[in-house]
Amino acid sequence: MITVLSGGTGTPKLLQGLKEIYDPANMNIIVNTLENDYFSGVYVSADVDTVLYTMADMINEEFWYGVRNDTFITHERLKELGYSELLRIGDIDRATKIQKTMLLENHTLSEAVNIQAQEMGIKSNIIPMSNENSEIELITDIGRLDFHDFLIKHQSSPEVLDIKYSNVIPSEGVVESIENSDAVIIGPSNPITSISPILYLEGVKKALKNTYTIAVSPIVGSDTVSGPASKFMKALDIEVSSVGVASLYKDFLDVMVIDEKDYDLKDELENIVDKVVVTNTIMKTLDDKKNLAGIILNNIK
Questions:
Q1: Of 114, 211, 130, 204, nearest in space to 171 by CA
Q2: Which partner for 186 in 19, 27, 122, 215 could form a disulfide, CB atoms 3.0-4.6 Å apart?
Q3: 25-40: per-residue pLDDT in tens?
Q4: Three-state DSSP state, 30
Q5: Interatomic CA distance for residues 16 and 290, integer angstroms
Q6: Which helix (H) or strand (E) holds 129?
């Protein structure tokens, strides 16, 4: 049994590879919920839905958000009626979100996600990191911004000065899945807004210290593979490199997987973590994803 810590872009690519070569029924996936909120009257859990669609082979791989070949009839009609949505939500995706919103009237988020995962034929156990409302606030050079306003309305352009997380309680099964796993894989998601919110949950770091943990760096050179991670890392005075990522995870990390382009960082990283694996971490094709997944699994005790 393995547990994967996931955000909404880099790690789902890895999950595509993992589920091809590892039994999905033996996989727990703990997913960031820090960005969850209501939009256009429906509950949006972007990272959770991306993982659901990935594991159900429905994900839109162009944006790593929404459903492949979705239509946008409702979105376009809302615009015609004078309502401009902050998020461009597809029709099939919207149906998923409507169902989740309705389920939340009588179920926790974890229960709602479990119901949807079963209906989509997903064998893995997908666990939202918390059932409580989570929030992230960015302090920027143009003032305080909600995460989605920063990301979508302002296209990630403001400079980030500080980041504020809300404190939430881990959902049932988060700590237990880590404790009962043979290994934990921290995927190549944004280390600040996708992975750290999971790590800060009560009991998670303690559980990781007692579990074999391997992480894939989302940084190649000084560039993030996806998203505005570099701005967030700079705001917290963390070096934008694989070394910076390793420093975030150093209290519990056993193995760090870095890209071939970062080979010159191997010696420095070996002062932080016991083992460093150098390979191609850029996942453009399914073979890339399967190869990286295989290397990770081969480096688990």
A1: 130
A2: 215
A3: 999 999 999 889 999 9
A4: strand
A5: 8
A6: none
d(CA 66, CA 148): 16
Beta bridge mates, 31: 6, 128
Amino acid, res. 167: N
Q: Which of 80-84, 192-196, 222-226, 286-290 has the lowest mean pLDDT?
A: 222-226
Q: Which tokens is 232 given?
A: 């967030």
* Total length of the chain: 301
pTM, rounded to two decimals:
0.94
Alpha-carbon distance of 40 to 112, in angstroms, equals: 19
Residue 184, pLDDT above cutoff 80: yes
- The whole-angstrom separation of Cα 292 and Cα 229 is 21
Distance between CA atoms of residues 78 and 262, nearest Å: 47
First to last CA, the chain: 12
Q: DSSP for 216-255?
A: E-SEETTEESSSSHHHHHHHTT--SSHHHHHHHHTTT-SE
Token pair for residue 220? 């190649």
Please state, in angstroms and rounded to a whole number, the distance separating the CA atoms of residues 1 and 181: 5
Could you tell me where the beta strands, DSSP code E, fall in the chain?
Answer: 2-6, 27-31, 37-39, 42-44, 125-128, 136-140, 143-146, 160-165, 183-186, 213-216, 219-220, 223-224, 255-259, 275-279
Considering only CA atoms, which of 133, 155, 105, 121 is closest in space to residue 44? 133
How far apart, in Å, are the Cα atoms of 145 and each of 65, 151, 157?
22, 9, 12
Listed residue (97, 252, 228, 46) closest to 150, CA to CA: 228
What average pLDDT does the structure give for the chain?
93
pLDDT in tens, 199-258: 999 999 999 999 999 999 999 987 655 568 888 888 888 999 999 999 999 999 999 999
